[in-house]
Design goal:
Elements lengths: L1 E4 L4 H5 L3 E2 L8 E5 L23 E2 L2 E2 L4 E2 L9 E19 L10 E7 L13 E8 L7 E4 L5 E10 L3 E2 L1 E8 L11 E2 L8 E5 L23 E2 L10 E19 L10 E7 L13 E8 L5 E5 L7 E9 L3 E2 L1 E8 L15 E4 L1 E2 L2 H4 L3 E4 L7 E4 L4 E4 L15 E9 L7 E8 L5 E6 L6 E9 L5 E12 L3 E4 L4 E2 L3 E2 L4 E9 L3 H4 L1 E11 L10
Parallel strand pairs: 24-38, 25-33
Antiparallel strand pairs: 1-10, 2-13, 3-7, 4-5, 6-12, 7-10, 7-11, 7-13, 8-9, 8-11, 14-23, 15-17, 16-22, 17-20, 17-21, 17-23, 18-19, 18-21, 26-34, 27-28, 29-37, 30-38, 31-34, 31-37, 32-33, 32-35, 32-36
Length: 527
């Protein structure tokens, strides 16, 4: 069923797999029995665990991982993780680094396919890794004899309690493709099954980073090779596309690579059914050696757009690194659009957790916060949080009348989310408070500010994932996308002022070129 392997052999055995659980891929913690000493979210951090001697928090020694309290009264602790993308599982690394006497002595792993995330307690879980021993402060790598079927969630069981530094779930993404085969998309996107299958050098960071969602946070989550000292040297990485298709436009992002970007870059492609192209593969140059630069996005029109490819090889000349690569194209069988394509998408943003501080330019987050006035209420059985949002009625001649209403919002069917419309209310603020039934984990909020002419300033676009316990207040005149539910139909209580004149109540602007990636969520269409 499985075998334990030396961690040094992990890449050789699972090198063509991706970590489905990492937060960098959108993995998220759904439920956990206990996280007294250290939160479970650290366990799926993409960065390696670190040691911090002498660092303490309110619960004791700070540990980089998930750690439960001692003397568990249950048989074991557990943590449920929603995979960033549904996929089949081939192996694990249950890492106890720096947990020297407080590690979980043993662990097992269960999995379930539950795309809607409903009723996980009563779902039919399947054991995919039986109980295994976990020595202290080491990587514990396991390879399954056969890849599993497709799952959306995993549950790691911690016997009986203790700490786990990192939990890696290696497997293959089960792509959720758009219905339109002619739609232009990133053929190399990890969410569509794109993956790195070989790289000449990964001295500073793994090459698999270049296919991750978003634009990352710093140079550590790109790909960077060591300095070369040999004339005519170049490094390269081979990418297996999520599906065979036509490469039309190449986008190379060197964000945060300011003195270590490649001098030039070249892209070649081939068509083979092999996982890794062999020496007999015929490579076609799609982008001739071309200059890049520091800390920017660079676009190149592809040649041989009539040919179908399965793999791409990116060469950096002579060495260096970059953050991301996008291979825009259409799948085999799709219609090739008019060429050349524009430099697109104009803007890719990654939705981040909603906080009052980050949302402040656009309005207020409606939640019980301790940094506002709080008084006792209801004979001491409740606390009253005052003035959680500013309600504005600026209609001329006092013509705006309050409308307390309910919006019933259907979940989006496709992610990443393409922004096509913004609206604003020129005379009124607008508040939304979710009324959930326990199924909704969150909803998507997309906002932007005004240009001088009053149109949406797309350069200021921000996206936030609001939790089911957070309401949102759009300040008067702020452009925002209509409500976007994630995973489940959601009712929202809405407070707005209106006078019945359409252009006074709501103004709309149609936009193009903004794509929002939503870590930890998938569209509502079935896999």
């Amino acid at each position: 069923m499985y075998k334990r392997i030396d961690h040094n052999n992990l890449k050789a055995q699972l090198g063509q797999c991706v970590d489905l659980a990492t937060s960098a891929m959108g993995g998220s913690i759904v439920a956990v029995t206990d996280e007294f000493f250290a939160p479970a979210i650290r366990m799926i951090d993409a960065a390696p665990a670190v040691s911090a001697p002498g660092k303490f928090d309110d619960h004791g020694q700070w540990m980089d991982g998930w750690e439960t309290k001692r003397h568990n009264q249950r048989d074991y602790d557990w943590c449920i993780i929603k995979l960033g993308f549904a996929g089949s599982v081939s192996g694990f690394d249950i890492d106890t680094s720096f947990f020297t006497g407080n590690q979980a002595p043993a662990a097992s792993v269960d999995a379930v396919f539950c795309p809607e995330g409903e009723d996980l307690d009563n779902a039919q879980w399947t054991e995919i890794l039986p109980r295994v021993d976990l020595p202290p402060s080491c990587h514990n790598a396991f390879v399954l004899n056969n890849a599993t079927k497709v799952f959306t969630h995993v549950r790691i069981n911690n016997y009986p309690d203790g700490g786990i530094a990192r939990f890696r779930v290696y497997g293959q993404v089960a792509p959720q493709w758009p219905a339109n085969v002619s739609e232009v998309l990133d053929l190399a996107y990890v969410g569509y099954g794109g993956r790195v299958v070989s790289a000449t050098d990964e001295h500073y960071a793994p090459a698999s980073n270049i296919l991750l969602p978003g634009r990352g946070k710093d140079a550590d989550d790109g790909w960077q090779t060591k300095r070369s000292r040999v004339p005519n040297h170049n490094d390269s990485v081979v990418i297996r596309l999520g599906a065979k298709g036509h490469i039309l436009k190449v986008e190379v992002d060197t964000s945060d690579f300011k003195g270590n970007y490649p001098n030039r870059i070249k892209l070649e492609a081939t068509n083979t059914n092999a996982e890794v192209p062999d020496a007999s593969s015929q490579w076609v140059t799609v982008v001739q050696p071309s200059s890049t630069g520091p800390h920017g996005q660079f676009y190149f029109d592809a040649s041989h757009t009539d040919q179908v490819f399965s793999h791409a090889r990116v060469s950096i000349i002579p060495d260096g690194g970059f953050k991301r690569i996008r291979l825009h194209g259409v799948r085999q069988g799709g219609q090739i659009p008019s060429l050349p394509l524009p430099n697109f998408p104009k803007r890719i943003i990654v939705a981040e957790p909603l906080t009052s501080e980050k949302y402040a330019p656009f309005g207020e987050v409606i939640e019980a916060k301790l940094n506002i006035k709080v008084t006792g209420a209801n004979q001491g059985t409740a606390k009253k949080f005052h003035h959680v949002a500013k309600v504005t009625n600026a209609f001329p001649n006092d013509s705006g009348k309050v409308n307390l209403c309910v919006f019933r919002s259907s979940p989006t069917k496709e992610l990443p989310f393409k922004v096509k419309l913004f609206e604003r209310h020129p005379y009124s603020s607008q508040q939304f408070v979710p009324m959930t039934n326990g199924k909704t984990r969150g909803y998507l909020v997309i906002v932007c500010l005004n240009n001088e002419d009053g149109s949406p300033d797309l350069t200021t676009t921000k996206a936030f994932i609001a939790s089911s316990t957070q309401g949102i207040s759009y300040r008067r005149g702020v452009w925002h996308h209509p409500m976007i539910s994630l995973e489940h139909e959601t009712d929202f209580a809405c407070l707005v002022h209106e006078n019945g004149t359409p252009n006074d109540d709501c103004q709309e602007a149609y936009v193009d070129g903004v794509v929002v990636q939503v870590p930890g969520f998938q569209g509502n269409s079935k896999i």
